[in-house]
C-alpha cells in the first residue's frame, strides 16, 4: 500500500491495453475497426455485407405481422415486464415470455417508459 504497488500495476496494465488498442493488435469494433465505409486504418474488412431491399422489406413485414398477430398478448406481457422493472424484481421470465409476442422496438420502448433513457452529457 505504501509503495503504491496497486496503483502502478493498474497504470501499467492500462497503458498496455491502450497501446494494443491504438496499434490495432486488440481490435474493438466501433473503436479501432470498421470506422468508416472504406474500413479501418488498422484492420480492413474483406467484404462488408449489406442487406438487400427485399431483405429489409421482409424484416419490416415480419415485425408488422408479429404486431398484428398478438396485440393483446404483447400489451399484457409488456405491462408485466414494466411492473417487474418498477418493483425491482427479476425481469428475466417476463422478458423471455414477452419476446414471443413483442418486437425488440416494443420491448425497448416499454423499458424506456419506466426506466428512462441514458443521455450522455455533451
Descriptive account of the structure:
With 122 residues, the chain is mainly α. The protein has 2 domains: 46 residues, no CATH class; 62 residues. 58% of the residues lie in helices and 0% in strands. The chain is flat.
Form type:
flat
Strand residues, percent: under 5%
Overall pLDDT score? 85
Number of strands: 0
Low-confidence stretches: none
Gist of the model:
The chain is built from five helices and no strands.
Per-chain topology:
Blueprint: H1 5-23, H2 53-69, H3 71-86, H4 92-98, H5 104-115
Give a quick set of tags describing it:
single chain, 122 residues, 2 domains, 5 helices, 0% strand
Amino acid at each position: 500500500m505504501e509503495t503504491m504497488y496497486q496503483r502502478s500495476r493498474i497504470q501499467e496494465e492500462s497503458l498496455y491495453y491502450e497501446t494494443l488498442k491504438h496499434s490495432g493488435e486488440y481490435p474493438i469494433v466501433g473503436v479501432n475497426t470498421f470506422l468508416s465505409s472504406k474500413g479501418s486504418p488498422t484492420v480492413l474488412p474483406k467484404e462488408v455485407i449489406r442487406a438487400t431491399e427485399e431483405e429489409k422489406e421482409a424484416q419490416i413485414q415480419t415485425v408488422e405481422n408479429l404486431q398484428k398477430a398478438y396485440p393483446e398478448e404483447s400489451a399484457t406481457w409488456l405491462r408485466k415486464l414494466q411492473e417487474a422493472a418498477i418493483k425491482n424484481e427479476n425481469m428475466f421470465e417476463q422478458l423471455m415470455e414477452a419476446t414471443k409476442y413483442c418486437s425488440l422496438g416494443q420491448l425497448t420502448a416499454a423499458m424506456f417508459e419506466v426506466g428512462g433513457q441514458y443521455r450522455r452529457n455533451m
